[in-house]
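Input record (one chain):
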Amino acid sequence: MTHIKRKIVTILTDDHIADAEKITILRQLEADSLSKERSATEGMTPVDGDDGEDLKTIENALRKLGQEPVEAGASSL
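The corresponding structure, as predicted from the sequence alone:
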């Protein structure tokens, strides 16, 4: 399990964090992941094999909280 996946599980299962705050945290993780993915496609950073999986995990977590992930992918930011 990647660091991001562990972090997401911790966020989702923490009853002391309100859903709105969980969504805010997940949105930041989503933005960071999309930014990293975009910079990799532009040749700025090496491609990490887990980036796509991390983004899918973040998107699934957002859906569990009733949110839709960013639709256009890395180019949307």
